[in-house]
Write a structure and sequence with these properties.
Low-confidence stretches: none
Largest sheet: 2 strands, antiparallel
Distance between the termini: 56 Å
Radius of gyration: 25 Å
Number of domains: 2
Number of strands: 2
Strand content: 15-25%
Length: 141
């Protein structure tokens, strides 16, 4: 099963890379078309810089071709606030042991997960779009 998942991740990665190349090519063509319409030279430093930045996009996205890399990027850049597991208590549970060929008593933990609201709200308030929307709401009220 794990080889299937690995192959699946590779296929998804290749498809994503191809789509990214198509999007990049389309974006560069759109920039060139806009330059032609506005009589801006394609050799202009700003146009060249934009094209160069777009050309780097497939490589940047290629570095995130697995779930592990995507999750690591989200955590490293502060976009993922992971839930925190809290133990509520313990209880005695019965589980079958194949070694002993009988049920035995084990201690099981009862847990729940929560996402810290303060971290979530703090991350939202770092986004300028959210701040603009909140400011516009407070001006209306």
């Amino acid at each position: 099963m794990s080889s299937f998942l690995t192959a699946h991740q590779h296929i998804i990665g290749y498809i994503s890379a191809l789509q990214c190349l198509d999007v990049t090519d389309h974006a560069i063509q759109t920039i060139h078309k806009l330059c032609d319409q506005l009589s801006v030279s394609r050799a202009d430093s700003h146009v060249s810089a934009a094209g160069g930045n777009l050309s780097e996009l497939p490589q940047l996205l290629g570095d995130m071709d697995t779930q592990h890399k995507q999750k690591k990027w989200l955590i490293d850049n502060g976009y993922l606030i992971e839930p925190i597991e809290v133990v509520l208590g313990t209880r005695i549970d019965r589980r079958y042991s194949s070694e002993l060929r009988r049920s035995r008593s084990v201690i099981a933990e009862d847990t729940f997960q929560h996402i810290p609201v303060d971290k979530l709200l703090g991350k939202l308030l770092e986004d300028p779009v959210v701040v603009t929307v909140l400011n516009s709401i407070s001006l209306v009220a």
